[in-house]
Amino acid sequence: MIKAKAYKGQVVHLFGSINEYVGELDTKPHKNGPGWYRILNPCVVFQQSDPQKGILTNVLMALTGPGNAYKKYVDIRIPDDFVIEIRTVNKSGNMYEFYKKEIDRVVANRIIIPDGSNVVPLQ
Fold it and tell me: For residue 12, how many other CB atoms are within 10 A of its CB?
């Protein structure tokens, strides 16, 4: 069981599960009961490969979706016998800087799907 109150006011990086998240761990008891946690202002973390440079890059992406499709939280369940690592993000470090930029980023509010009337054939 995670002692969420120990992380009050902090941005944390949770990994060891299916998805990695960076966000603020909600300190209130979750409505679904023990083992459930809410991450506020979440970003998912994934690796992107650049084969030309031969490197992997960690990417933070806010879970906003087009037109603010999602609410600004994600609920996760961590069973008692599951090992997950929680790291507190340094507010003077690069990850926090990228995190703040990503959650403050303005997202697209429309999705336009082209149809035949606005597609130009190649010649």
Answer: 18
Residues 6+ apart with CB under 8 A from 109: 66, 67, 68
HSE of 108, CA atoms in CB hemisphere, 13 A: 5
Residue 103's CB is within 10 A of a number of other CB atoms, namely: 20
State whether residue 54 is helix, strand or coil. Answer: coil
DSSP SS3 for 48: strand
Residue 84 CB neighbours (<10 A): 14
Q: 102 phi and psi, to 5 degrees?
A: -70, -45
What would the two tokens of residue 18 be? 């299916």
Instruction: Give 4-105's CATH code, choosing from 1.10.510.10, 2.30.30.100, 3.30.420.130, 3.30.390.30.
Output: 2.30.30.100
Q: Give residue-wise pLDDT tens across range 36-75.
A: 999 999 999 888 888 888 888 878 888 876 666 778 899 9
How confident is the model over 89-98, as a mean pLDDT? 93
Q: How many CA atoms lie within 13 A of 92 on its CB side?
A: 0
